[in-house]
Amino acid sequence: MQQVDGNAARLKTETDEPGWEVDPDDDWGLAVVATVGRQLKLRREAVGMRAADFGEAVGYGEDLVYKIEGGKRIPRPEYLDKADEVLGAAGLLSAMKEDVKKVRYPKKVRDLTQREAKAVELQLYDPLSIHGLLQTPEYARGLLLMRRPAYTADEVERFIAARVARKAVFERDPAPELSFVLEEWTLRRPLGGRTALRCQLEHLLAAGQLRNVELQVMPMDREEHAGVDGGIEVLKFADGSAVGRSPVVANGRPVFEPRQLRILELRYGIIRAQALTPRESTTFIEKLLGET
């Protein structure tokens, strides 16, 4: 045990270090994290504090301090606040939280979030799970913990935070039009436990009451189903442009070409026609909730 500010405290270890891993494919993010780390190091050296002493003061090991300063880890907001306090930076280090916030999520998630923030209409179908924009944190955790090979605890928390951040699309004014088609089986599988599933179903019912949201359920007993080729995302923007994505089109990369977009919209339109209506879907989800 080591002493921090006169009180016994365990130094945090590799499993609870104060930051997220840097996305190696995110050049801009890497540059931001490197700059933040450099500023932290310069400030620490300016006050004449060794890395080991600084680590003890903020409650983390020396090796973790070097990772942050070397741009190997993305510092959490609370780390920057503590560093600001310990180093007497008068808010300069805490102010970097805004820069860090932009790179804390994986690049592909950040790019998707930026597109969602500009879209005026979103058409979304996920055949494997409840769509990320509709997931509660508990459901998301249960889903992420199922992945094999397993995500690290750090990765799980980072992905959950990213999914929660994406929910800002529901708070926009004016609100975009959101259309979701959900597979029945995803509403039945109790990922994370029965309590988590109940909370998820309740959340879906609440989301379905929003004037700009339409939820439709695709029953498992449908003999015809246009969604067998995988998920679909089509985002439309105020200037008339659009972007789409599906595993069977361009290997899942975003597409902008009109012909490919028409194919995705055609498939989505057929899927909606084959699914229950929004009113029928609400009744269906209420029934499932009563059985859960």
Helix and strand topology:
Elements: E1 2-4, E2 7-9, E3 19-21, H1 27-46, H2 51-58, H3 62-69, E4 73-75, H4 77-87, H5 97-101, H6 107-118, E5 119-126, H7 137-144, H8 153-166, E6 177-183, H9 184-188, H10 194-208, E7 213-218, E8 232-237, E9 242-245, H11 258-274, H12 278-291
Parallel strand pairs: 5-6, 6-7
Antiparallel strand pairs: 1-2, 3-4, 5-8, 8-9
Helix pairs in contact: 2-3, 7-8, 10-12
Q: What can be said about this structure in brief?
A:
The chain is an alpha/beta fold. It has helices at 27-46, 51-58, 62-69, 77-87, 97-101, 107-118, 137-144, 153-166, 184-188, 194-208, 258-274, 278-291, and strands spanning 2-4, 7-9, 19-21, 73-75, 119-126, 177-183, 213-218, 232-237, 242-245.
Query: Which band does the percent of strand residues land in?
Result: 5-15%
Measure the end-to-end span: 47 Å
Cα Rg: 23 Å
DSSP summary, beta strand count = 9
Shape: elongated
Structural class: alpha/beta
Give, in order, the helices and strands: EEEHHHEHHHEHHEHHEEEHH
Largest sheet, in brief, is: 5 strands, mixed
Q: Roughly what percent helix?
A: 40-55%
Strands in their spatial order, largest beta sheet: 7-6-5-8-9
Poorly predicted segments: 1-17
Number of helices: 12
Mean pLDDT comes to: 87
